[in-house]
Known about the structure:
The chain is 20% helix and 37% strand. With 71 residues, it is an alpha+beta fold. It has one domain (6-69). The N and C termini lie far apart (30 Å).
Amino acid sequence: MSNNFCKCDGEPIVYIKENKDMLLIVILYVDDLIFMGSKDAIVENFKEEMKNEFEMTDLGLLRYFLIIEVQ
């Protein structure tokens, strides 16, 4: 919340950060963090911020989440 994210009213595990030219969506589930953004630079910047703040492993692009295949 200190990074200007808004908690989604309809889904409490979803956080959104947006302004006129960018969108970043973060999903927190137990010990998993899934995020996507409107620009690659925004995604990379967020990833680096999280790595600096927390011990984190980057597993690359999302393929499966809770037995659901993502394409």
